[in-house]
Amino acid sequence: MTNTEKHFETAIQIGLSACLGGDRVRFDKGHKRSNFCMEEFINHVEYVKFCPEVAIGMPIPRNTIRQVRYGDVIKVCRPDGTGDVGPKLTEYGERIAKNQAKTLSGFVFCAKSPSCGMERVKVYNDTGTGASAEGIGAFAEQIMKHNPLLPCEENGRLNDVHLRENFVMRVYVYKSWQELIAQPVNKKVLTDFHAKHKYLLMSHNYSAYRTLGRLLAEGDPKECDVLALEYISGLMEALKKPASRKGQANTLAHLQGYFKNDISQVEKAEMVEAIDEYRKGLVPLNVPLTLLKHHLRVHPKAYLQQQVYFDPYPSDLKLRFSI
Q1: Contact 248/278 with Cβ under 8 angstroms?
Q2: C-alpha torsion sign, points 88, 89, 91, 92
Q3: Stated pTM of the model
């Protein structure tokens, strides 16, 4: 069953900085609407919006806030050092992280925000004469700290086609995992899940593919909860980095091998050429993948038909047309 035919039991919920959804909640009554989130991804997910600054009682409009270092302490305050809201933002973030965020399958944060930035948030010195990009938004930090497996990304980074594709893919994998562990899990269930994600994992991290396979093969079935946590931690970590062309091409070559007795020499040469052109960066991933999917339709193979690699997310997002 392809991903586009698969129906999750519950909607995919994504946390979203409210300003990215077009809500006018910024300090100047503005927003930072994300076109990808609100025009493309929205067709497949439900957003749960958060503006931590408004949630802790700050008005609209309001004075700007920034992260300011005072010795070993970083305040989230006005540029003059007054009105520190860091503790309130941290408390709110921790509360959401431990409760509502548990039902989310991903989160998109507003970049560079002192409350929502994932990384490289400016931290000013106490004289206001300089800054270093070392901070993490007080709210975002708690979400990520208490939900380390949750796929998270920033709006700015989503403009990069590789990071966008990688984030969406991780959201769908994580949602599948959430539904899997909602029911009693045994070693066979874990092994079946791994089997379906085999080639997706291989394309991203061949070493992790082998390591996680051994983990499930050798793991104690009586310690299934421990085994499941170790497995999903390894899987989500391995998928964090976008797959390289080399990794994708090697995976495509593995998949091509399943058809060695089914297709003609001309078709084999065509497939080899398509994979090589992709490896060289001459065509996007969708080109050799379309050929493979064609051969799979003509020569059905049950094991390959269950592979998430072929359809990791809805095809109308067209994410593989650009990578």
Answers
A1: yes
A2: positive
A3: 0.95
